[in-house]
Specification:
The chain is mainly alpha-helical. The protein has six helices and two strands; from the N terminus they run αααββααα. β1 and β2 form a beta hairpin. The mean pLDDT is 94.
Length: 120
């Protein structure tokens, strides 16, 4: 399953926001610091590819293949953040660096980092 980094960011953001309540485009725009028109285009693309569902009230929810990607990226984000913090990186930099790496790290490298975190 190949999906662009920006789409992964949208899906991850929808997952995180959905833990707090119904998700609307305006919350995604605020969270990602992106214009509402840009978010509108992106979410309609995600909907047409069956990653998300937008109901008649404008609530955005993840469909199974969108949830799978969002959960994978979110796990990478949290594990990498924890790893960086454990090796002494400030929380602010740990979060920023994890966000940059989470989309590009290989499965092999990520799995080794995750195993190392469990041992620490």
């Amino acid at each position: 399953m190949i999906i662009r980094e920006s789409a992964e960011m949208y899906l991850e953001t929808i997952l995180v926001l959905s833990k707090k309540g119904p998700v609307h485009a305006v919350e995604i725009a605020r969270s990602l610091n992106i214009s509402k028109p840009s978010v509108s285009v992106a979410i309609h693309n995600l909907e047409s590819e069956h990653y998300i569902l937008i109901d008649e009230e404008g609530h955005i929810s993840l469909l199974p293949k969108g949830r799978e990607i969002a959960e994978r990226i979110y796990e990478r984000h949290t594990v990498l953040t924890e790893f960086f913090e454990k090796i002494g990186v400030s929380s602010e930099n740990a979060v920023a660096d994890a966000c940059k790496i989470e989309h590009d790290i290989s499965d092999e490298s990520f799995n080794r980092v995750r195993e190392l975190i469990k041992k620490l």
